Amino acid sequence: MGRLDGKVIVLSAAAQGIGRATAIAFAKEGAQVTATDINGEKLKELDGIPGIKTMVVDVTKKDQVEALAKKHDRVDVLFNIAGFVHHGSILDCEEADWDFTMNVNVRSMYLMSKAFLPKMLANKSGNIINMASVASSIKGVVNRCVYSTSKAAVIGLTKSIAADFIDQGIRCNCVCPGTVDTPSLRGRIQAQPDPEQAYKDFMARQKTGRMCTAEEVAYLCVYLASDESAYVTGTEQIIDGGWSL
Description:
Elements: E1 8-11, H1 17-28, E2 32-37, H2 40-43, E3 52-56, H3 62-70, E4 77-80, H4 95-123, E5 126-131, H5 145-165, E6 170-177, E7 180-181, H6 183-190, H7 195-204, E8 212-213, H8 214-225, E9 236-239
Parallel strand pairs: 1-2, 1-4, 2-3, 4-5, 5-6, 6-9, 7-8
């Protein structure tokens, strides 16, 4: 028996990093997983894994989100992961940067939650997990102005959904990682003028001497998706190796 046997799970940003690791972990625990992403080529790498079906979906597009929801009669767990990291202070953040980041990091979760919540409410049972970050209302981080603002909004959205629907069988929690070793992070490091120094700067803030792995975040997400966390709602689940201490 898997920890997620019989559960139907939909998640975004599943082509790589935390999303990919979590989709695989969910499937290994017996869930029927719909893994979505805008990167169809990378998403294909999940094809053939038992328990996973893939769909190319842009979760910032209302029509695509609603079409995705219509393909599911029932959803037990919705995991909103899609996100973008902008580097810079408020002075480095143009209006286009602000709008793009808030659209990907917050509006996508609004659209997905609004589309799938009615199905959960009809079954009087549902579980929403949102990807936030320690860089948010939890901790001020240099050069993460709009990113931190967006992730603080995710925490607020999470608590709002949890409070509004707690008496209707709905749970909502968010995951707040620190620095996770993903292709996205590696790409951002390589994009810096001095990638070697950028890597050293990231490592210097790791109190455990290493970064978190995508799989470690996935283990936490399996717990939140399972009935083991049935009494957990409205929380920020911090997984940062002590960075926020």
